Amino acid sequence: MKTFLPMAVAALLGLASLAMLLVACAHAEDGPRAADPVPPKAGDPAPDFALPDQDGTVHALRDLRGQWVVLYFYPKDDTPGCTRQACTMRDRFADFAARNVRVFGINPDSVASHQAFARKHNLNFPLLSDGDRSVVKAYGVWGRLGGLVPLTARTTFLVTPEGMVAKVYPQASPMDNADEILADLATLGVPAPE
Fold this sequence. Notes:
- By secondary structure, the protein is of the alpha/beta class.
- The chain contains 6 helices and 9 strands, in the order αβββααβαβαββββα.
- The chain has one domain (37-187): 3-Layer(aba) Sandwich (Glutaredoxin), CATH 3.40.30.10.
- It is 35% helix and 21% strand.
- The strands form 3 sheets. Strands 5-4-3-8-9 form a 5-stranded mixed β-sheet.
- Residues 8-35 have low confidence and may be disordered.
C-alpha cells in the first residue's frame, strides 16, 4: 500500500501534465508564431478594422479620420487591472472628448461580456469585441501568459487623425495610461481647450 500511493499520485500528475499539453497543442494556433505581425510602431499606418461595441454598433477605424484615436487593448473584462484601466479612462473621458479624441477598449471578449462590464462600471466609451482575434493579431498584441493561457497584452496605441500610429504604450499602466496619453497629446500639439 505504501508504494501504491506515490505511484498513484505520480500517475495522476502525469495525466494532468498530458491534459495540459493536449490543451496547449489544441490551441497552438491561438498564440504568436514567427509569421504573426509585430505591433505597429510610431510612424506606421494603424491597421484598419471594423468591430462591434457593447451595444452592437460597428466602429471602423477608417471612419474616424480627422480625429485622434486611443486604442487600448486589455486582457479581460471585469478583472482587477482591466477594471482599473477602464475606470481611469472613464474618469478622464471628458478630457479626451474636449480634445476631440475618441477612446476605444478592445479585446476578444463577447459583445454581451462588454455590455455587462460597461454597465457595471458606467463606462462612457465603446468596448470593441474582437471575437475572431483578427485585430489583436493585426496589432501584434495576442500572446500567451506563461506560454499556455491565450491572452491580449495590455498595450495602447495613439492614432493620428491621418490614421498613423503616433505612440505605442507597451505594458500600459492601468492607473497611469490615460494621464500619459493626455500629456503626450499636449506634446503633440493637441492642447486642452481653454
